Amino acid sequence: MFLALFTICLISRMNGSEADGGPCKTSERSVPGKALKRHTFKEFPVRGIVDCQNTCERDPRCASYNFFIPGKVCELNSHTKEERPDDFVTDELRFYMRREDDDECLKTPPVCDVNANCKNTLGSYLCSCKPGFIGDGKTCQG
């Protein structure tokens, strides 16, 4: 169990988490002892949590994952705890991690028209023209 906790702390520190009490640094993105249930679309054995993280980052359907510590099993989820808070449950044998996302709306040059609103989504973004303008969001005319 010590090795599992050490691994969890190490991953949390690698991800730039901030201390909020408890045995190691955690953030809203990584939560030991919790899991998102009913949204797993793929489950598979791994050598360690880093393999789970790498697989999630490569799969566009993956929004988060649970790592089953004793069996070293990765559970890829199609949603996050923020999207489905009622399904975020205590499970001392698991570790929850939300996928990190780049905010395309903050990129330079802008991805949307100056007369559009940009909404960041996991792995993508949505552009929509502001009131009084028409277009696809990437180009808006008024």
From TrEMBL:
Stretch forming the signal peptide: 1-19
InterPro entries named among the record's database cross-references: EGF, EGF-like_Ca-bd_dom, EGF-type_Asp/Asn_hydroxyl_site, EGF_Ca-bd_CS, NELL2-like_EGF, Pan_app
Keywords: Disulfide bond, EGF-like domain, Signal
Coiled-coil stretches noted in the UniProt entry, renumbered to this chain: none
Pfam family, one: PAN_1
Taxonomic superkingdom: Eukaryota
Domain EGF-like per the UniProt entry, residue ranges: 101-141
Domain Apple: 24-100
Record's protein name: EGF-like domain-containing protein
